[in-house]
Amino acid sequence: MLTQTATHHPYTEQHIGHTELTQHYRVDLRPLSPDVFYDANPVSDWRDLTWEQIGKPYRVERWSKEKQRWEREHQQDLPTKLAWEMFNRSFQSLFDADALAKRQESLAEIGVALKGFHLHDALHAVEDTLHWTMWNYIHRVQDGIWDPRGKRALFEGLEVHHPEILFLGAADGYEAMQLMAMYPGGHAVLVDYDAYCKDHRFGAFPDSYPFLGVDPSSGQPRVWYKDQMDIDYEVIDIRDLKYGREFDIVVSIGLIEHFPDEYKPLAFEMHRKFLKPNGYAVFTTPRIQTISKLFYMLFADVMNYAYRELMDVKHLGLYAYENGFEILRHGRIKAHNGVIAKVR
Ligand SMILES: C[S@@+](CC[C@H](N)C(=O)[O-])C[C@H]1O[C@@H](n2cnc3c(N)ncnc32)[C@H](O)[C@@H]1O
Q1: Which ligand 1 atom lies nearest to the CA of residue 238?
Q2: Counting atoms of ligand 1 from 1, which one is nearest the CA of 237?
Q3: What is the model's pTM?
Q4: For an engineered disulfide with 165, which of 133, 188, 230, 234 has Cβ 3.0 to 4.6 Å away?
Q5: How many domains does the chain have?
Q6: Residue from 175, 193, 310 to probe ligand 1 pocket by mutation (most atoms less than 8 Å from CB)
């Protein structure tokens, strides 16, 4: 059992190396191990890679019931912004839930339904049990979504000092906070056009969640918290941002894959136009792997409101390369591909 040193900042430098399961998430203050950002077969020269060699990304096309219902009722496609508003509430409900308690509840419901021979209710409860079991495993046990060790490995080695960071489609803002812990003393602008993200996904992100980073005065590892970071959150469409080329890092986590190929140049331009000369663009997209396909199939009702591709890191790198970026590093973390790039 840990000693609580402050109500909202329960972990200190003495906890580095520690990992623990809380009710809603994993605390992971373990420094990196070598296998958390890798590419088994890295691309040495992006000029030699072609779409014929790697094919195109996989499209997720099993849509949520809510999207389908809306489209039936309104006789039109679900507008993109509304799709994101529905997605954010739906996805966040998973983070807010106590997965183990929910699993216990649905297990109990199976018993009650079977006793009363209500087969339809029993099947529904089995499905719920499967969902909560999988969510508990993916998010809480494996930490596959926040993936702090993978993200730290992806973000390490950037040559920035007190960086200005722009996070496009920031949602809960997790990765900006991880970057700020690793490169402290800077400032981040989080951008999302869904106000719920500012108010709830980021607004209610736990103050007590520890981010492992560095102490700028000693260079030693240090634990950082959200309320120690200089963050502004703008509720605005990325396309309406008025910034110039003023950011050291422009990052998006799971944004590029929502743009079909004809819009990919626009997606990359939205990163490039805000970067200082020599600034870093950081892109991640979900991986094309069996567990991800299974996740988006089983969680279709929760997740699938908008166009989405699953990619290999070679897809992401080739898109970035073709759109004018020099790829500095590329690799895979738990659920995502990652690319660190500069404008060519
Ligand atoms: C797939 S999510 C990013 C994934 C995120 N890491 C998460 O945990 O949900 C994309 C986010 O970008 C936002 N977004 C999409 N298009 C946008 C736009 N044009 N302007 C601002 N925000 C946008 C959505 O509201 C959503 O919160």
Answers
A1: 20
A2: 20
A3: 0.95
A4: 188
A5: 2
A6: 193
